[in-house]
Fold:
Amino acid sequence: MDCLFCKIIAGEIPCTKVYEDDFVFAFKDISPIAPVHYLFIPKAHISGAAAVTEENAVIVGKIFTAIAKVAAREQLDSGFRVITNNGADAGQTVPHLHFHLLAGKEMGWSAESGV
Ligand code: 5GP
Ligand code: ZN
Structure:
């Protein structure tokens, strides 16, 4: 499949990995918008939040468990934000479900994410 994030998981495109287990992979965003900006993705290809179903939804819990582990490991005690963009209006650019973990600065709040 011609998917950028599937290629990153497969090691065909380099990345800076920050977490991996049997189901979840996480790496540094190539264009960070906060001091901490990681992407958490399922190893199985899911095109985005709109493609989450009763059958595959367990992966979302696994991703959030991974996020909690990394937040604890990196002592993000003053806070962090998790964002997923779905579709054109939200600015999704990679059609493989991903959750942005943002931290390391005080963030505002708006529909444009406020970061
Ligand atoms: P989206 O805009 O779809 O919510 O998020 C996609 C994210 O992937 C963007 O923040 C972008 O910087 C990041 N990204 C795009 N291509 C690459 C890449 O080749 N490597 C890494 N590490 N991040 C990427
Ligand atoms: Zn993919």
Remarks:
- The pocket of guanosine-5'-monophosphate (ligand 1) is lined by residues 4, 13, 15, 27-31, 39, 85, 91-94 (CB under 6 Å).
- The two ends are 32 Å apart (CA to CA).
- The mean pLDDT is 97.
- The first helix runs from residue 4 to 10.
